[in-house]
Amino acid sequence: MATVTTPADRSTDNTAPRSEPSGGGRDWWNNAVFYQIYPRSFADGGTDGVGDLPGIEDKLGYLELLGIDALWLSPVMRSPMADHGYDVSDPRDIDPLFGDLAAMDSLVAAAHARGIKVTMDLVPNHTSVEHEWFQAALEAAPGSPERARYIFRDGKGADGSQPPNNWPSIFGGPAWTRVTESDGKPGQWYLHIFAKEQPDLNWENPDVFADLEKTLRFWLERGIDGFRIDVAHGMAKPDDLPDHDWNTNELLRNSDDDPRFNNPAVHAIHRWIRTVMDEYPNAVTVGEIWVRDNVRFGEYIRPDELHLGFNFRLAEAEFSADAIRAAIENSIRAVKDVGGTPTWTLSNHDVEREVTRYGGGETGTSRARAMLLVELALPGTCFLYNGSELGLPNANLPDSVLQDPVWERSGHTERGRDGCRVPIPWEGSAPPFGFTTGTGTWLPIPADWASLTVESQLERIDSTLSLYRTALELRAQRPEFSGEEVDWYGSPTNCFAFRRTGGLVCVLNASTESIAMPPGEVLLSSTPLTAGKLPPNAAAWLI
Ligand code: NOJ
User: Fold this and answer.
1) Is the same domain home to 148 and 258?
2) Is 242 a domain residue?
3) 122, 170, 252: residue to mutate for ligand 1 pocket, most atoms within 8 A of CB
4) Which end of the chain is more exposed for a tag (fewer CB within 10 A), N or C?
């Protein structure tokens, strides 16, 4: 019968690297569990059907009950919302859709009173076209200091009617848009790696540095506990903006040779950000880093750059023991040599929800529950995406309601990310499920989510929400979750087990047969054991 072997009879093919202690264990974020709030979709304190800051504050009791340590708020700064806040027109103000500065101060104070840290998204790669700098650049002439804050170039061809290079936008279509000059004639082109409403800043311009410093200090002085840095592997561009042989332009999953990202000059930018952050030693930076090569990934979290870097390997891995183990080993290896802390995430506002990714339905839910136990068993920092604690799947939305700029820019060939951004169902038996006191929600909530509401899951001991609560409580309280090392056991095909230094054992069964458990007391399992065995698509914790 398939069984997991204990350390004493561990198979000799145990080749897993052993990670060094990370970050000295002194910083609050090193073992923290962050909870990502997509503000439009978390809770509406009003009636417009769009989530907001008062809505979040109102739910802090729930978040405390859930047991998370810190919030990461996707952007709440002033924005025309072409990319739902990732197009910032004033980085030092709150968008009226979400509230105002007083609402933000109030949320931060209330969260702190409950022992919850608050971090914000920071978007330094680009601004909105409505940012005053970009408006000034449009008014100004080619070659002016106003244009020098962005990446304006003359077009190719005799009349300049061809874009300056062949780069595509991540969201589809070209990465360049041509402007009309003050004489009414077609003029220069500006670069936008994302939507045309998101012009890229020129990070060789000192104004850009000075303004980001103002923004960092503005929020840190207000008590913000840190930042998630959007497109942290972007910002620096190669001098000559070379053409590229494009094999792939997958949404937010660029390859390592993509000239739009990961240019060596980006590290000087991070080192500079760090000099500001070091004046606020209790605040953290976590960068969005889509870089595959482990050595190049690790460069971002050298001691004088970012504190943490998002590693997306777990979010990309299929549900197989080998793929998941490889993702874990890779993520640990990527930070080991620079003494950094590993980070773990299964989903966010850009990727398909894990229940759907793992096959949907009961199987998808079982696997997502299993993967939560795998994630929370690992040493390092965990990031949970709002709604994953309810086991929400991606919603199947009709074309008519899609809002992601990807849908338009791809000429309706890519549906985009709206399916993972549907508002949270809180209570009751029909939409809007207590999300708003109004009637509609900015994206429709599927009527069959009635059994997934917070209210209904809080009552059920076997719900995904109850599993999250129990798992988070055990992770926070049990000494077995200590230590930085992961030691792999020999395991049956398509299963694995690892042991943390502190003694926690995590077993994953991704196979189609039940497996015997190694000796030990079962702390928690994602699916009840049957006759002492761990069923398929399940994980368990033992001590
Ligand atoms: C990454 C963010 O996570 C994504 O949602 C956004 O569209 C792009 N950066 C552009 O800011």
Assistant:
1) no
2) yes
3) 252
4) N
pLDDT confidence of residue 15: 30
Q: In angstroms, how far is the first alpha carbon of the chain from the final one?
A: 22
Atom 2 (ligand 1): residue with closest C-alpha? 230
Instruction: From 442, 472, 502, give the residue that closes a domain.
Output: 472
Using only C-alpha atoms, what is the Rg of the chain?
24
Stretch 306-320: mean pLDDT = 96
Q: Which of 123, 128, 191, 231 to probe ligand 1 with, by most ligand atoms within 8 A of CB?
A: 231
Phi, psi torsion values for 382, nearest 5 degrees? -110, 145
CA 225 to chain CA centroid, nearest Å: 17
Question: What CATH number is associated with residue 507?
Answer: 2.60.40.1180
- Token readout for 200 is 């890229």
Catalytic residue among 69, 121, 230, 350: 230
8 Å CB contact between 309 and 286: yes
CATH of residue 153: 3.90.400.10
Q: How far apart are CA 270 and CA 285, in angstroms?
A: 10
Is 230 marked active-site? yes
Ligand 1 near 194 CB (within 6 A): yes
* C-beta of 290 in contact with ligand 1 (< 6 A): no
Q: What is the CA(86)–ligand 1 centre distance, in A?
A: 6
Give the structural domain span for 523.
485-542
pLDDT at 22 over 60: no
Answer whether 350 contacts ligand 1 (Cβ < 6 A). yes
Clarify whether residues 167 and 316 are in a common domain: no
Residue 14, pLDDT > 50, answer no
Told to judge if 200 belongs to the known catalytic residues of this protein, a careful annotator would answer no
Please check the confidence at residue 11 and state whether its pLDDT lies above 80. Answer: no
Q: Whose CA is closest to atom 8 on ligand 1?
A: 86
Structure confidence at residue 2 (pLDDT)? 52
Backbone dihedral angles phi then psi of residue 119, each to the nearest 5 degrees: -115, 155
Q: Could you tell me if residue 226 is inside a domain?
A: yes
Tell me, yes or no, whether 121 and 139 share the same domain: no
Choosing from 256, 279, 293, 322, which is the catalytic residue? 279
How much is the pLDDT for 542? 98
Digit-coded pLDDT (tens) for 443-489: 999 999 999 999 999 999 999 999 999 999 999 999 999 999 999 99
Residues 73 and 179 placed together within one structural domain of the fold: no
* Tens-place pLDDT, residues 234-263: 999 999 999 999 877 666 667 888 999 999
Structure tokens at 523: 């702390």
Residues 108 and 140 in one domain: no
> Residue 95: CB within 6 Å of ligand 1?
no
What confidence category does residue 277 fall into, taking pLDDT thresholds of 50, 70 and 90?
very high
Measured from the Cα of 405, ligand 1's closest atom is 7
- Do 339 and 375 fall into the same domain? yes
Number of domains in the chain: 3
Q: Could you tell me if the CB of 385 is within 6 A of ligand 1?
A: no
Is the whole-model pTM more than 0.85? yes
Give exposure, 74-84, as e/b (b: 16+ Cβ within 10 Å): bbbbbbebbbb
Q: What is the mean pLDDT of residues 500-510?
A: 97
Say if 382 falls within a structural domain.
Answer: yes
248 and 339 assigned to the same domain: yes
